Structure formats: structure tokens, C-alpha cells
Amino acid sequence: MDESIKHIFTLQSEICKTLADPKRLMILHELRDSEKSVGQLVSSLELPQSNISHHLAIMRERGIVTARRDGTTIYYSLASPKIGQACDLVQEVLKDRWADINSLAGSIGT
Known about the structure:
This protein is α+β, with helices and mostly antiparallel strands. It contains five helices and three strands, in the order ααβααββα. It is flat.
């Protein structure tokens, strides 16, 4: 396999690891439609400020979110709308799988 393809798979793996945390997914969901400050995320997610800041730092380091300073407030947003689309696609797969499991469970129960 070509080395550049292997490198792409490595980068993809790193993004997947970054997204493999429920709190990070919750933060991304909140950032889908508009940028938000840490304070706004704390309010909407009811998570500690330190926890949200920690996750945002990791996602910023890995290029998942970007930051913009306005005075003393830092606003975060998705680095690309495709990140939200990727999350949607995974949720669709989960919904399909859940429907299949429920269908199978229903047929066993009859």
C-alpha cells in the first residue's frame, strides 16, 4: 500500500479517536449551528467549565474546532461543516442498526 494512503489512514484514526468521547460529541453538536463561548457551552451542556475547556483544547489541537477571540471571550466553532455531516452519518448508521435490532427482537417475541 502506498505510504501516503497509510498516512491518510493514520490521520483518520486520530480524528476518530478524538471523536470517540461522548462529551466531545455533545460539544460538537452544540457548535453545529453557530459558534459558542465556553460559558455558553457550560450553560447548555451543564458540564464543568474545566471539563469543557479541556475537551475544546484537544479538539482545537487536532483541527476539529477553531477559536476566535473577541475581547476577553473566546468563541469556538467547527473547523468544517463536514464534521457535523460525518456525525450525522454515524447517527444514521446507528439508527438503522437500532431499527434492525428492534425488528429482530420483535420477531423473536412473537
